[in-house]
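Student: Hello, beginner here. Can you help me understand the protein record under this note? Any guidance would be welcome.
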Amino acid sequence: MQNDTTQWAKNRIGRINLLLTEPKYSFSDLNKITCPVLVLAGEKDVVKERHTRNIAKNIAKATLIIAPNETHDFPAENPESFNKLILDFLKEN
């Protein structure tokens, strides 16, 4: 992919680098967050479910949703369902 000069390849390489190097926060850093937070991932997400659960566990007011049968591209693949989850969370908080 490094020899591919298309914008798609450049974006893909950038996203892969983000997955490998970000975020630069520890779970203990998340304890500083005091506002309600929706931690949302897909059941088939590229981010491991254990990691997503640890994120939620370390934010005091976190709401965790693991969306069944969804991937990391949940917002684009199923926008109606994704938007409903977001709007429901915002209405409750």
In short: DSSP finds five helices and two strands in the chain.
